Amino acid sequence: MTEPHELFSALGDRTRLGVLTALARSGPATATELAATIPVTRQAISKHLAALDAVGLVTRHQEGREVRYQFEADALDTVASWATDTAGTWDRRLDRLRRSLE
Prior knowledge:
Layout: H1 4-11, H2 14-26, H3 31-35, H4 42-54, E1 58-63, E2 66-71, H5 77-101
Antiparallel strand pairs: 1-2
Helix pairs in contact: 2-4
């Protein structure tokens, strides 16, 4: 399972987030198709896709001579779980602080 910090690192890059957003909105695409809509080179898109693939946010599918990439929403479950756990921890801490101040 991918660690939350690895996902946040991948999502923290503006271009990678743009690539992921494009795939989430439009569905599977090649690096060439993504480069036509995102203002960076195809080679840069390929590197960003490799980083997203490494943490499980996209998967590669070979279709003939093309490689299509698909957004994997389930990978964000790790981030959602982390956020829920962290929110619960802070809620408990703030409740204890509130009670001690009353």
